[in-house]
Amino acid sequence: MSIVIQYILYLAILVIFAIPFGAYIKKVMEGEKTFLSKILTPCENVIYKVMRIDKEEQMNWKKYVASVFIFSGIGFLFLFLLQLLQGVLPGNPQGVSGVKWDLSFNTAVSFITNTNWQSYTGESTLSYLTQAVGLTVQNFVSAATGMAVLFALIRGFTRVKTDGLGSFWVDMVRIVVHILLPLNLVLSLLLVGGGVIQNLKGAQTVSLVEPIAVSAEGEWIENAVIDLEHGTVTVDGEVVEDAEIVTEQFVPMGPAASQIAVKQTGTNGGGYTGVNSAHPLENPNAFTNLLEMISILLIPASLCFTFGNAVKNKKQGTAIFIAMFICLVLALASITVSEQLGTPQLSQSGNVDISMEHQAGGNMEGKEARFGIAASSAWSAFTTAASNGSVNAMHDSYTPLGGMVTMLLMQLGEVIFGGVGCGLYGMMAFVILTVFIAGLLVGRTPEFLGKKIEPYEMKWVVIVCLAAPVTILVGSGIAALVPEVADSLHNSGAHGFSELLYTYSSCGANNGSAFAGFHADTVFLNISLGIVMLVARFLPIVGTLAIAGSLAEKKKIATTAGTLSTTNAMFVFLLIFVILLVGALSFFPALALGPIAEFFSQVM
């Protein structure tokens, strides 16, 4: 019961903040006054003047697409070169060298696509300059790009007989200045107050309270007796050859809180440290855990209400929110039950007590004792639903079914809230698909928000809906044939395949989380995963803007008694059914080879 109350609290806080924030975003994007206008509007106007942006410009969909590609291309080139040259640039107190070309390519693609997939350890690979000027900036602008495309689609629904979708440059400035900067300034200060590091010091080396022994492979030696005077390690009276005694610990420093704030709110997810928000300096306690977890879903959830306000149909925004919310709750319940029950092997012969009496119980492998199963399961559901990718526990250590649900949330196409902007425009493709199917069933021309849905829109809708599944399955299928990929797996068999499938699912869904056992830093993986991220990000953007341009040119159709309601419970059910059907048809065979096979191997 305490877990249920905890989850109700998380979800209630999310809804309480999402509704007013959604109204605020709508006012910002329509140029209306807000309580911050007196401070931020002058800053906005200065940017327009310096950058020579025409505030009244109306781009057609092709020009909007070109602007997105040009902006993202410049961001990629800057971040790629910054990584290569960081060894000779300032802002590098640890003296880290330049990043190799294939990893630089992968990381640059990862951050411009709002994926933040990381094949490296952040605190020891990237300089402070690269982290702050490269990664943090992309955390802002890649998130803003997704939101800008969403608002172009909204204008497609609201405008009549025009090809103008607004200005990409104006949208970007408003999103960054009025939404992302103030939100993340507040969150950064709260995180610093909660104990997250924020400084410009070099990494520290501190003495351990108690020394530990590790093998030549770097694995901890259990029950070791350490003799510091003679430098020997014994276990059960026998000396362990090649054992190493560790007496010091590496403690990362740097401007972490400012990057962590936007990694969460922008559904970026890339960690300042290698273990992400499982690290005690990124996420020290229950207070910071709550802040970071709620901020994952804040903007994606708020945009549902923004959509309803913008199209002057609040019920429509609420219906979409409810569909996403139901899917999230089902996923959260599935993960929690799986992790709480653990596996037969854990409780076999009473070796591990998985009861919940006076302890967390269940499968605690890979989870922080600070958060336990409840907070870890909630985070994993939130981060894979929202295309965020940050973690406070290692998904590789989840039970087969618990890990499968996190994988499936990504494979559905990052539409269960999804990334900021891109989650909702991806969901709108499924909404249009559902309207089309329902229209065929009753023999009527499909309509949505007063606009006819015709073959042109449906062709692009299919591309948007299938972009992620196709890139994931093709990418993982090719990778499974490459010998060096098999060598990169930490596990063999069904779990090893799950590591591979999860990796390509994460990149294809622009998520960025990983099954921790997969070593992905090879030339083939860096390049292939980069290509998957590019296709899965920009193909739906092109499709969404093409749909927006077509809808904007159409006239409005009056609502009649025969018009399909898209705000009632039946439509919500149909929408969820279509999303799950596409996901099940696309990925069931692959899941059967991975987590499902692993599950049955444990229970048989």
Structure notes:
- With 604 residues, the protein is mainly alpha-helical.
- It is 61% helix and 5% strand.
- It is built from 20 helices and 7 strands.
- Strands 2-3-4 form a 3-stranded antiparallel β-sheet, with no helix packed on it. A two-stranded antiparallel sheet has the order 1-5.
- A hairpin with a 2-residue loop joins strand 3 (232-235) and strand 4 (238-239).
- It is globular.
Helices, strands, pairings?
Layout: H1 2-29, H2 37-51, H3 61-85, H4 101-112, H5 122-125, H6 128-158, H7 168-193, E1 204-214, E2 225-227, E3 232-235, E4 238-239, E5 244-251, H8 256-265, H9 286-310, H10 314-341, H11 344-347, H12 372-385, H13 400-411, H14 422-442, E6 447-448, E7 451-452, H15 455-479, H16 483-488, H17 493-508, H18 523-552, H19 569-593, H20 595-603
Antiparallel strand pairs: 1-5, 2-3, 3-4, 6-7
Helix pairs in contact: 1-9, 2-7, 3-4, 3-6, 3-18, 4-18, 6-7, 6-8, 6-14, 6-18, 7-8, 8-9, 9-10, 9-12, 10-12, 10-13, 10-19, 12-13, 13-17, 13-20, 14-15, 14-19, 15-17, 15-18, 17-18, 17-20
Q: Assess the beta-strand content as a share of residues.
A: 5-15%
Task: Assign the structural class, choosing from mainly alpha, mainly beta, alpha/beta, alpha+beta, or little secondary structure.
Answer: mainly alpha
Note the main sheet. 3 strands, antiparallel
**Fraction in helix:** 55-70%
Record field, number of beta strands: 7
What is the ordering of alpha helices and beta strands? HHHHHHHEEEEEHHHHHHHEEHHHHHH
- Strand numbers in spatial order across the main sheet: 2-3-4
How far apart the termini lie comes to 31 Å
> How many separate helices?
20
In the predicted model, the low-confidence regions spanning at least 5 consecutive residues are none
Taken from the alpha-carbon principal axes, the silhouette is globular
Give the radius of gyration.
25 Å
Mean pLDDT: 89
